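hi! just following up on the protien thing from before. the input was this:
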Amino acid sequence: MEAPELINRHLGMRVKELRAGRGWSLETLANASRVSRSMLSQIERERANPTLAVTQRIARAFGMELGELLQEASATSKVSVIRANDHAFHYRSDKDIRLRTLSPLHLEKDVEFYEVQIQAGGTLRSSPHFEGTREFLTVAKGQVRVESGGDIENLSTGDSASYRADVPHAIINTGRAEAVAYLVVIYR
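and the predicted 3d structure came back as:
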């Protein structure tokens, strides 16, 4: 069998397997992907050669990237790891602040997860994000002050706060040692 036929066979089996695993009908997948039911049926029966745009819409309906849909199920681990020393995930590093992304970079997302390390006296200031954006901060070590618009709250180890991030906001280390916190940003 030629390579294109192998790809079509794999895609057809994969779509059918994912759809069945979710208990979806062809109609449900058609509505989720904006791909016609007849095209999906042809793909599953290996009778169609879909465009990349169609395949991308199917992948997104399953909450996947295109590459994940096309990969052999056994070819890749289902566990995604971000190593502590992987500098590709260091969003910001300077003498006062280290902001490390803990969520995968390749995902389109409405949620971001960070580890924030702030040296004594350091401040992480942020401009307003998109309207409706909120941040959730949990202090793992030290003491910080959260400023959001005109609101101010002091937090210690173990404390959590949620606040508007669509206004100027800041996280300030008010202690005498490094502060470590975990930050979740939710865009709406």
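The mean pLDDT is 88.
Strands lie at 90-93, 97-101, 111-118, 123-126, 134-141, 143-148, 151-156, 160-164, 169-173, 179-186.
cheers
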